[in-house]
Every structure is written in C-alpha cells, then in structure tokens.
Amino acid sequence: MNEQFIRRAKLIVLAVPPILEPLEVVGPAEQQSTLVEVISFLDFRVSFTIKKTSESTINTSKISIYNLKKESRALLEKENLKVILQVGYTGFLGSNSREITEKEPVLKTLFVGDVAAVRSTRKGPDIVSEIEAGDGEKNVVQSYINRTFEGGATASDNTFKDGTAIKVILKALIKELGYIPNATKEKRIDELLKIVSDRKINRSITLSGPVKHYLDSILKDEGLEWSVQDDEFYIADPDAQTSTMAASVVLNSKSGLLDIAKGKEGLINFKALLNPQINPTSIITVNSELVDLANSNFKVRKVDYTGDTHGGNWLAIGEAVPIG
Asked: Which of 95, 102, 109, 156 has a C-alpha 20 to 30 A away from that of 71?
C-alpha cells in the first residue's frame, strides 16, 4: 500500500482590480481583465471542510489558515474576493520501504468559491482566519431575469416568440448567471446544451425571478440537472454512464479506499484518502469484497473533503449510485 506524506496546500486569493497591484494574472487571456491573483499562501497551516454535490445546491467550504500577518488578514476582509484552494503531496512511502521519496509537488484545485465571510480569532498561540466561501454563490444567489419569450427570435434578441427552443431559453438563463462572458465560454455552453432536447415552447412566456428557479424547473423537465463546480457551469444527465465533468477513478486499498458501506438500491457510502479527482459525477470503479465485480461502477452524487496540513488524514467521504 502506498501512503501519501508531506501534505501541502496553497490558498490563492483573487479579486476584481484594482484592489492591489496583482502579483500574477491567472486564467485565460479573456478573463484577465476581470480577475487577478492578489496574494497567495503556500505551506501555511491550512485546515478545510468542503461540501460538494452534483445538484444545483451551492458547494460550500470553510477554510482556516493560521498565523497570517496583520496586512494579509486585512486583505482577506476586502469585498468581492474569490479563493482557490489547491492541495497535493510531495512524498510517498512505498510498501517495502521506510524511506519517504520526495518529489515535486503537484497541486490540484480542490475548491473555487466566492468569499462570503472571514473571521480571525486567537486560539491559544495561533491566530486563525476562517474563510467561508460558496462556489458560484454570487452568480447564483444574485442573478435574476425579467424577460418575455414570445418566439421566433435568436438568443441575442430581446424577445422570443412561440416556437422558441428550450435550448435558447436555457442559454439566456446561463448568460444571466454570468457564465457566457466571451466567445470561448459560449462555445463551451453550446456543447453542454447538446444533451438538451429540441422541444420548443408552444406559447409565449415571461420569466421574472431568480435564474436558479427557472434552471431547476426547466432542466428537471428535461431529466437533467445543473451545478457550478469550481466556478464552471455544468449540465449533466444523472443517469448517464459517463461523465463530462470529472475524471474516472479506481478506488481500492492501494489508491486510498478506507471504508465502504452499501445502502438501499445499490447506493454506496465510501471513505477514501483525499483525491481531488473524486468530484460530483465522477465515475468510480470500486474494488472491494463488498462490491460485486460485475457491478462495480458508480457515479458520485456528493462528496465532502476534510483535512489539516498539520495532522490527521485528508479524507474524501462521499455517496455514489450504481450505473450500468
């Protein structure tokens, strides 16, 4: 069995300029005018609890970082910040060796979210800054639409007549959320919408209210679901045997599987060492004596990550449903 050692974490803080002189511009060129990295923290003590789901419920995190300077704590209290938590390991211990093999850290993104609240408190000798954040929270919570769809127009028009495709309405809603800021993102959304049916409305409609409400309603009728994962919009078929949102992962004792329990209708609850590739809608292949080899593929519905760079295992605790 391989065990991961020397845990490392990096917390990146992004902001809409000008908040400070940017240290490094992040993201594709078309995003660089809106979000910049203003500061990052590597190898500070960090603990975290992150909750993710494949549904439209907002993914949340509580991230604690220890003993920042006063100036850094003040920066975290600014408005309109976004955080990225990246984690990884720099050492592995082989099953036949007691020597830790060092390697260059490969840090992978575990969470991206809008900062909702920050509190700094003293706990014994430490000053702990706790950050609460929600993935896409500002876009989802603050987005409203007031549009009349009357038919026969294109997605760029103000109004739509009878016969407007559901895809056109969905694209307008996604644009209101802020996830079509440029041509590159529009192309990506067009690809996602290919799994939506070609049905059209047979009467004019007016949408007035929270965008989330209409996305939930329309996609439920389509047998689909949507979510925001690491600040990207996704549409998924919960019954599909593949995932366009996340990688496939093999879970066994060598890859970090710690515990598994079977529930009703084939559902499983699993506990594993943290692997950032285990995400909502990930396809996991479970190798365990409790799971039938012929039915060992599952789709992750929800996963919670917990960890502390200064102690205890980093864990992924989740729920998955059978596929196939």
From this structure: 109
* Domain assignment of residue 193, given as a range: 140-229
- Two structure tokens written together for 101: 């093999």
Boundary (domain end) residue, out of 95, 116, 135: 135
Tell me: do 189 and 272 sit in the same domain.
Answer: no
Instruction: Give the least confident one: 61-65, 149-153, 285-289.
Output: 149-153
Beta bridge partners of residue 82, listed in sequence order: 14, 114
The pLDDT of residue 122: 96
Res. 146: pLDDT tops 80: yes
Please state, for a pLDDT cut of 90, what percent of the chain lies above it: 60
13 and 57 share a domain?
yes
User: Mutual orientation of helices 166-177 and 211-221 as an angle, nearest 10°?
Assistant: 150
Q: Which of 158, 147, 238, 163 is nearest to 199 (CA)?
A: 163
Say which CATH number the domain at 296 has: 2.40.30.150
Residue 176 lies in a domain: yes
pTM for the model stands at: 0.85
* Average pLDDT, integer, range 211-240: 94
CB 226 within 8 A of CB 215: yes
Q: What is the tally of structural domains in the chain?
A: 3
Mean pLDDT of 190-198: 95
